[in-house]
Amino acid sequence: MLLTSYELGNLTLPNRLVMAPMTRARAVDGKPTEATATYYAQRATAGLIVTEGVHPNAVGQAGPFMPGVHNDEQVEAWRVVTDAVHANGGRIFAQLMHGGRIGHAEVAGHHPVGPSAIAAGTDVFTPTGMEPAPVPRALSAAEVADQVQAFGDAARKAVEAGFDGVELHGANGYLIQQFLSSSANERTDGYGGSISGRIRFAVEAVEAAVDAIGPDRVGIRLSPGGEIQGIVEENVPALYGELLKALPDMAYIHVLATVDDERLMELRKAWPSAFILNPGGQIGPNVSTQEQGERWLANGADLISYGRAYIGNPDLVERFRLGLPLAGADQATWFQTPEGYVDYPSHQH
């Protein structure tokens, strides 16, 4: 089933493999490079590519060497990437990732913001190395509205840059999940406290993107119950059950396997449109397999996303098709280095 086609909104995907978003930290001055275009074009046989996290505004930049999509120069640079992917027959969404409290003033000249003034209790990347995450400045209600609108504005910019759509990053401890989290969000206004308050930011951010570019071009990534970067979520089944009910119609939800199979199946049954499952779960060393993907398609997922497997295997679809072994990837070259990016060969070479 992984190699069968699928209709996703207004796109026909030739297979059900999604290249998952992965930070590669190779942007220059907030812009992707020609190597970025090569990197994604090499992997254009994926049914869908979702890019690395792209900040929707300057304060949302989580780390150094990460690209944005909020000014004209960034749009122009991304157009080179999307043109290359489309020329190779691919489809590509931009992942809009607002770091929230995961960030540092040294990264982009802005102090990080969050739902509450609570530090993540973890280290963050800076231009000079790892540093403790600072206590973020709590957003006022008016500023929350500004951050919501940033997702809509960035979605519009992404389509202008040639992307087929956007995925909002609501997972892995970044701003959207910070609002969902009981450990990062201690607000007492309409964006905190009850489940309806904690899901409000996520819902409004998605609505802003949908209003900007239409429902067929918008998805969201979620890691229910995932504990990373200081995140704790209370009453996960109820929290995500209410979130899925409140989200507007859109192309898909992209769920990491951060809860058990029973909970994942409940989410699958609760969501009416496309369901992308990432079997790898929490960020870690494991590489998801073809067998895991086929099992989840049989269990009701529509598409399967692969992250680390795509680093060393630009031709992952063909390797699955032919039953070939997968190449490994050197973790020392995941970020910033010139090697380990566009130099992994296909099986033919």
Automatic annotation (TrEMBL):
<dbReference type="InterPro" id="IPR001155">
    <property type="entry name" value="OxRdtase_FMN_N"/>
</dbReference>
<feature type="domain" description="NADH:flavin oxidoreductase/NADH oxidase N-terminal">
    <location>
        <begin position="7"/>
        <end position="325"/>
    </location>
</feature>
<dbReference type="GO" id="GO:0010181">
    <property type="term" value="F:FMN binding"/>
</dbReference>
<protein>
    <submittedName>
        <fullName>N-ethylmaleimide reductase</fullName>
    </submittedName>
</protein>
<dbReference type="InterPro" id="IPR045247">
    <property type="entry name" value="Oye-like"/>
</dbReference>
<dbReference type="InterPro" id="IPR013785">
    <property type="entry name" value="Aldolase_TIM"/>
</dbReference>
<dbReference type="GO" id="GO:0016491">
    <property type="term" value="F:oxidoreductase activity"/>
</dbReference>
<dbReference type="Pfam" id="PF00724">
    <property type="entry name" value="Oxidored_FMN"/>
</dbReference>
